[in-house]
Design a protein that fits this description.
The protein has 493 residues and is of the alpha/beta class. Helices cover 44% and strands 12% of the residues. The structure holds uridine-5'-diphosphate-glucuronic acid.
């Protein structure tokens, strides 16, 4: 099929490359002529695994680039809208890009075409798009609008597209349904997977796809409700982690117990410094706005956001507990991206935490395998230092913070790390390390929802150290003395 994808942001780039990969002829359109020129030269503007391989494979063949919406629409049977829907001041998304693209598409529709909304939008947006198409001159019989939300995660977006757990087709007419079935047939019937050179299925992921056909409004609701639910799961587990930390329980063990219930599942139960990125923070607010506009109280979502913000502040408090005053302290930071596997720093908890530390007078040396270029826009030269690797970020530092869950951070040489640091303090916001191993390597190791471990092999001085959250918080909450004793026993074994 001939497909136009309008909007060469994250979703548009991945969708266009993957639609070409499964056999379609795709024109990717963006108003930013520099971006189009970069893509034509083979430059990929984002760090996303397998994306450059796919762009390389299909560029100038099944995948071309253009800055003209109307030219691309004229040549296509289906048009995917993948433009940004940034958060407006009131928390609701700004849909002006969607509207202006719909108006441009209308001017180029002279035969039946499918318009697919793939950007994350509030429920009923398909209807608004349909109205705009008609208002701008498209004929009623030529207009079919469908919702086809994406569930791509940054870092694994290509394989998420090619091996989806579900494809949601929100359609209000037979033409839309038939077109979407044709577009995804190589995946739903599995012909793509037999193709030579097909991207292999990632370990642990299944090639079984559920196709869920709904009306457009339900599909739109599925997307917001999914993201808000996942965000809620993270905030929930972060609060449980804080309780675990206070009473001397272990959040990993608690999660293993909770996640074993198939009704809950083990995913998205990783406690840490809260969620970030371009999706969850924005979508939770947008979904809350949708509820408000429907006159429905969904203050649960406000609480999800509040807990998420608080979790970052809790982490900064943890740094203060570990280091006492922050002014003049030299801190190393591992990670700037909002999660591992991406260079995206939008709404990154790492960035917010570093900003707080700088405000309190600490100096920061950061390392991130992919996000340092983008971070320089927030922290220009001189505001923080950038290291060439993890060990350099830790060298002569009073403490090392782990702020992003890059896999490579979890396999660092602990003895080498210990040797380069001024003080052996690691404060891990992503629980990447095993507390016993960290203690054995001589670190005072703080993490989230797990007790600080002081072992017999540590310098005797440390046994009397009561900085750090568990003891401090238990004392503050008047936790019974006998329980505190028990906790002390646990952490010293
Ligand atoms: C998220 C959804 O997972 C995708 O399904 C969706 O398509 C996408 O948003 C979107 O709407 O476009 P993404 O933002 O790439 O994908 O990242 P996630 O892997 O979901 O992580 C989001 C945030 O939650 C990250 O900051 C991550 O560190 C944090 N997180 C995730 C946790 O703190 N704990 C967890 O257990 C999982």
């Amino acid at each position: 099929m001939r497909i136009a994808v309008v909007g060469a942001g994250y979703v548009g780039l991945v969708s266009a490359a993957c639609l070409a990969e499964i056999g379609h002829d795709v024109i990717l359109v963006d108003a930013d002529v520099n971006r189009i020129a970069d893509l034509n030269r083979g430059e990929v503007p984002i760090h996303e695994r397998l994306l450059s391989e796919l762009l390389q494979r299909h560029r100038c063949q099944r995948l071309t680039f253009s800055s003209s919406v109307s030219a691309a629409v004229v040549q296509s049977e289906a048009v995917f809208i993948t433009v940004g829907t940034p958060q407006a001041d009131g928390g609701e998304p700004d849909l002006s890009y969607v509207e202006s693209v719909a108006a441009e598409i209308a001017s180029a529709i002279s035969e039946p075409k499918l318009v697919v909304e793939k950007s994350t939008v509030p429920v009923c947006t398909c209807e608004s798009i349909r109205k705009v198409l008609l208002l701008h001159g498209a004929e009623l019989s030529h207009v079919s609008v469908a919702s086809n939300p994406e569930f791509l995660r940054e870092g694994t977006a290509v394989t998420d597209f090619l091996y989806p757990d579900r494809i949601v087709m929100g359609v209000d007419d037979d033409f839309s349904a038939a077109m979407l079935y044709s577009i995804y047939r190589p995946l739903t019937q599995g012909t793509y997977y037999q193709q030579e050179g097909a991207i292999p299925c990632p370990l642990g992921q299944s090639a079984t796809i559920q196709t869920i056909v709904t009306n457009a409004r339900s599909a739109e609701l599925i997307k917001h409700a999914s993201n808000a639910f996942l965000a809620m799961k993270i905030s929930y587990i972060n609060v449980v982690a804080n309780i675990a930390e206070t009473v001397g329980a272990d959040i990993d063990q608690v999660c293993a117990g909770i996640g074993a219930d198939p009704r809950i599942g083990p995913e998205f139960l990783k406690a840490g410094i809260g969620y970030g990125g371009s999706c969850f923070p924005k979508d939770v607010s947008a979904f809350h706005s949708v509820a408000e506009q429907c006159g429905i109280d969904f203050s649960l979502l406000a609480e999800v956001t509040r807990i998420n913000t608080q979790q970052r502040l809790n982490f900064v408090k943890k740094v203060r507990n570990a280091l006492w005053t922050l002014r003049g302290k030299r801190i190393g930071a591992l990670g700037l991206a909002f999660k591992g596997g991406t260079d995206d720093i939008r709404e990154s908890p790492a960035i917010a935490i570093i900003q707080d530390l700088l405000k309190e007078g600490a100096s920061v040396c950061a390392y991130d395998p992919a996000a340092m270029l983008k971070a320089r826009e927030v922290f220009p030269a001189g505001s923080i230092q950038y290291a060439d690797n993890e060990y350099e970020a830790a060298t002569r530092r009073d403490a090392l913070l782990v702020l992003t869950d890059w896999r490579q951070f979890g396999v660092l040489d602990l003895l080498k790390l210990r040797a380069v640091m001024k003080l052996p303090i690691v404060i891990d916001g992503r629980n990447l390390f095993n507390p016993s191993q960290m203690a054995a390597a001589g670190f005072l190791y703080y993490s989230v929802g797990r007790a600080l471990q002081i072992t017999e092999t540590m310098p005797s001085l440390w046994h009397g150290i009561h900085f750090g959250p568990p003891a401090a918080r238990m004392a503050a909450t008047g936790w019974p003395d006998n329980r505190r004793g028990l906790h002390k026993e646990l952490v010293s074994t």
